[in-house]
Structure formats: structure tokens, C-alpha cells
Amino acid sequence: MTYVDGFVLPVPKDAFDHYVKVTEVAKKVWMEFGALSYVEAREDDVPDGEITSFPLAVKKEKDDIIVFSYVTYRSRAARDEIMKKVMEDTRIKDVMEEMPAYMKRMIYGGFEVFTEA
């Protein structure tokens, strides 16, 4: 079954265009090393919650845009192999130094798919 890494993070509105440029580099690297897909999505219909929500999860501030992204792989083993290569790649190291997102407020995790169409 497919394996998924998922991420939710806030990006300052005034840095969003720069964030998009960073993700273009990241997309190329992940796909080059064997990811099945790489997706970055900008909030469109993301309601505030009282107990839990995406805005609460990332401590969204007034001028933030919430980004939901995910990368898919053939398996957990493939993900581990690909992620090792990605994290060692100088292109990723370079763009991570200039990442315009609030990385400390990012939530992320790896997920084993159990239903897929």
C-alpha cells in the first residue's frame, strides 16, 4: 500500500510567492528521487474551530495562509530511502535555509494508507 507524508503549516501572506518558488525546487527533488506525487495546496475553505481546526493546529495569525501538503510513496521503505536522499540533497538544504514558513508551527507525520482508490 501507498505511504503518505502529510504537512500543515502557516505561511505569511507577504512571503507566499517565495514559498511557492521554494516548493517548485522541493517538488523536483522529491519526484527525481522517486516520490509518486507531490502536492502543495493553499487554504480555500478552512473554517475556524472552537475545539480543533487547521487554524488552531498551526496557531494561525492574522496574516497567515494555511498550506496543506503531502507526498506519496510506494511504501514506507521507499519513503525512508527517498527522504534520506532528499534531506542530503544540496538543493533542499539551500531552500530550507530561506524557507519563509513558520516551521515551528508546522504539523506533520507519516501515514500508512489502508483504503485507496
Total separate domains: 1
Largest sheet: 4 strands, antiparallel
How many distinct beta strands?
4
Overall morphology: globular
Give the N-to-C terminal Cα separation.
Answer: 11 Å
Supply the number of helical segments: 4
From the alpha carbons, calculate the radius of gyration and give it in angstroms. Answer: 15 Å
Pfam families: DUF1428
Protein name: DUF1428 domain-containing protein
InterPro entries: Dimeric_a/b-barrel, DUF1428
Structure description:
This protein is α+β, with helices and mostly antiparallel strands and 117 residues long. It has a single domain (3-112), classed as 2-Layer Sandwich (Alpha-Beta Plaits), CATH 3.30.70.100. It has helices at residues 16-32, 54-57, 76-88, 90-97; strands at residues 3-12, 37-42, 64-73, 107-112. α1 packs antiparallel against α4. The model has no long low-confidence stretch (mean pLDDT 94). InterPro entries: Dimeric_a/b-barrel, DUF1428. This is DUF1428 domain-containing protein.
